[in-house]
Amino acid sequence: MTDTVDGERADQRSAAPEPATPEWERLDHRTVLVTVLILIGVAVLAGVPTTVGLTAWRGIGFALAWVLPGAFLMIAVLAGADELRWRRTRYRVSSDTVELHRGILFLSRRRLARARIRAVDTSAHPVMRVFGLTRLTIGTGEQGGGGTDTETIVLEPVTRETGERLRGLLLNRDSSSGTDTNADDTERLATWRLAWVRYAPLSIATVIFVGAIVGVPFQVADWFGRGGLPVEVVRALIERHGVWPVIALGIPVIVIAAGIASAALNLEAWWSYRLDREPGGTLRVRRGLLTSRSLTLDEQRVRGIDLIEPLGVRLVGAARVQVVATGLSTEAEQKSELSTLLPAAPRPLALEVAERVCGEAPSVPLAGHPVAARGRRLRWALITVAVLVAGWALLAGLTGWTTWWSITVGVLVALTTAALVARALDSYRNLGHALTERHLVTRHGSIRRSTVLLRRDGIIGWQVRQSVFQRRKGLATLIATTAAGKGRYAVTDADAGRALELAAEAVPDLIEPFLAASSDSGR
C-alpha cells in the first residue's frame, strides 16, 4: 500500500506542469573580457603604423603621448559600453516564444514564436572559443522592407553548453543533450577531405587575392609616407633584369601566392566540415578552424538545392551544393557560405549529397533550348568584341598608332573573340530544363553553371518575361517564384509556347486559369 501511494505521488510530481513564465536570463558576463582582448588587438594593429608615422614626424615621445592615451580611451569607452549592453540585455525561452529585451538609450523588445523558427546558427571566433562561448542566431527568415531579416534574435555570447541546449530545444530536439546525443541515429551525409583544398585556387577568391597582393604594398607604403615605393622597386627590377623577365617571373609568383592565400582561406572556413541529418528531421553543417560555425536547418523548410559549378572547378570535375530553403535571409543567401551544404568537392559526391537531401538527383536528362537561344548569345558576344575593338582603336589613336599597338590590338581581338564565342557556345550547351515527379530542374550559365532542383509544391507563382529580341525569335524566360532561397529561379530562353506548357505541367492549378482566360479572350 505504501509503495502504491509513493508511486502515485511520484507520478504527480513528474506530471506537474512546468512554469508558464520562465525566469529571465542574462548573457555571459565574460563578453566584456572578450571585448577588451579584441580591442587590445585592434589597438596594436592600428597603433603600430600610426606610431611609426608620428615618430618619423615628431619623435617617439610625441608619438607615444598621442597613441597610448588614445588606445586606453578607446578600450575603456567601448568596454564600458559592452558592460552596459550586458546589464541591459535579458532573454527567456518559454514553451511558445523566445524573447529578447535589450538597449542602452532605447529599449528594444523582440519576441519570436517558436513555431516560426526556421534555422539556428552558432558561431564563435577564436577569443570566444578560448572562453567556451558562442554566438547564437535564431531566425525565421522573414524579410523586412529593406531586405533585411527583421525576425532574428541574436544571443551574444552564451556558453557553448547553453547554445547547444537552446539549439536542440528550439528545433524540437532533446534539449537536455549536447551534440552527441542520439549519435547512433545521426546520418552522416558528407565529411571534409583535405584533398578538397586543391579546388580553392580555381575559385574567384584567387582573382580577388591577386588584386589584394598588388594593392596592399601601395597601402602599407603609404602608411609610412612612401606611397611610390612599390613603383620604384619595380622600376629598379626592370632596369636591372629587363621587362620580359620581370613579367615572366612576377605574374606566376603573384598568381601562386594568391592561390596559396585562397587555399588557406578555404582551410580556415571548411576545416572539420560535417554534414549530418540529425534526429527530428534537421540538417546540420559544422565547420571552421579558427572560427567555428554551425548551422542547423529544419528539413521541412528545404525547397530544393542549387548545384553550382564555376568554370575552373567544373573543368576538374567538382561542384558545390547550396540549399534552397526558407529560414535563410536574402542577405545570408547572398553570402554563399551560409547556405552551402557542401563546399567544392568531387562532382559524384555533390550529386549524391543533392540526391540524399532532395530525394532526386540533379543529373536527370534535360531538354535543350531552341537554336535561336544560341544565336542570341553569339550576337551579344560579337557586339561586345566590336565595342572593345572600338575602345582599343580609340586609345591607340590618341596615344599614336604604332606597330606595337597594331600587334597588341590584333592579339587582343583574336583572344577576346575566341573567348567570348567559346563562352557563348558553352552557355547555350548548358541551357536545359526538366520536370520530375517532385521537382522543376533548370540549368544555365557558363562561367558559373547552376543547376537548380526546385520542389514543385514550393512554387508560389510564375512570371513570363520576353524582351523585344526574344519575342522576335519566339523565346521567353520563365521565372518560378518561391518563398525560399533567392526567391526567383529562371528557365532562360526557352521556347515561348513550351515555357507556358512547362508552367502548366509543373503546377497545374496555378497558371491554367490564366491560360484559359487568355484562350477565351483570343476567340
TrEMBL record:
It comes from the Bacteria. It comes from Candidatus Avipropionibacterium avicola. Residues 86-167, 428-503 form the YdbS-like PH domain. The chain crosses the membrane at residues 32-54, 60-81, 199-221, 241-267, 380-398, 404-425. Residues 1-12 have a biased composition (Basic and acidic residues). Residues 1-21 are annotated as: Disordered. The lineage of its organism: Bacteria, Bacillati, Actinomycetota, Actinomycetes, Propionibacteriales. Pfam families: bPH_2. Keywords: Membrane, Transmembrane, Transmembrane helix. InterPro entries: UCP026631, YdbS-like_PH. This is PH domain-containing protein.
